[in-house]
Design goal:
The protein is mostly beta strands. Helices cover 13% and strands 34% of the residues.
Length: 151
């Protein structure tokens, strides 16, 4: 399928990259159809709205900079997108990249959770108060590197 994207213009996208967000994303509840794209810079991804090309979110796997991350989500929210108890969803954090990229942050309080089998997703709210809206990615990555060297 052809999709008009914010980062790449019009591109061909495999149908398997398409995700349905029945509840939308916080602030964009009216948009339900997205595609998940690899970003040109790893380890990032793009979550691109199919309905509005100007709406796209940068995503990252939170375990890359917070290996201890567990989203602690409500079972009913997982069930709403077809994730059974004990099944592991695909989890991403939405990234905000300000002009000063050293202050890039990830929202671990509101992860994007994907049922990879059904390609249904939602943004959920973590029940764990440890996870905040702004976790500074580069700062936390440096802490992970220090811990790795100490081991």
């Amino acid at each position: 399928m052809r999709v008009l994207t914010k980062p790449y213009g019009e591109i061909d996208v495999d149908e398997r990259q398409r995700l349905s967000f029945p509840f939308g994303i916080l602030g964009f509840e009216e948009l339900h159809d997205y595609v998940l794209l690899d970003a040109s810079q790893q380890p990032f991804y793009w979550l691109q709205s199919v309905e509005r090309p100007e709406v796209a979110f940068v995503l990252i796997d939170p375990k890359l900079f917070r290996p201890d991350y567990t989203p602690d989500l409500a079972e009913n929210e997982l069930a709403e997108i077809g994730i059974a108890s004990g099944e592991e969803p695909l989890v991403f954090a939405v990234v905000t990249i300000p002009e000063n990229q050293a202050l890039m942050s990830a929202n671990l309080q509101g992860p994007v959770v994907i049922n990879r089998r059904e390609r249904i997703a939602r943004q959920s709210i973590s029940l764990n108060p440890v996870w905040k809206i702004r976790h500074y990615v580069l700062e936390e990555l440096s802490q992970v590197a220090v811990k790795d060297r100490a081991c």
